[in-house]
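ok here's LysM domain-containing protein, seq below lol
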Amino acid sequence: MAAAVLLGTSVLAASAAGVGPFGGPVSGERIVVVESGQTLSGLAESYLPGRVIGDGVAAIQIANGLSSEHVQAGQRLVIPAR
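and the structure came out like this:
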């Protein structure tokens, strides 16, 4: 039973981090690597069309545990499902 609780806890933690139980993104999400010059607002506009840009930025921040809008080239980000 302890193993089941541990596994369940691990899956919940992974899902909260935007990672599925086998290390890939949660269904409907995608992983992108930030390129030089990209911004969260630009990523939100590209990958979350139809959303208000500020809402898309907030969704990306929440999915990645970001406290600011600053991102760096090479950083891997989870883009939440639309």
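fwiw The beta strands are 30-33, 76-79. kinda neat tbh
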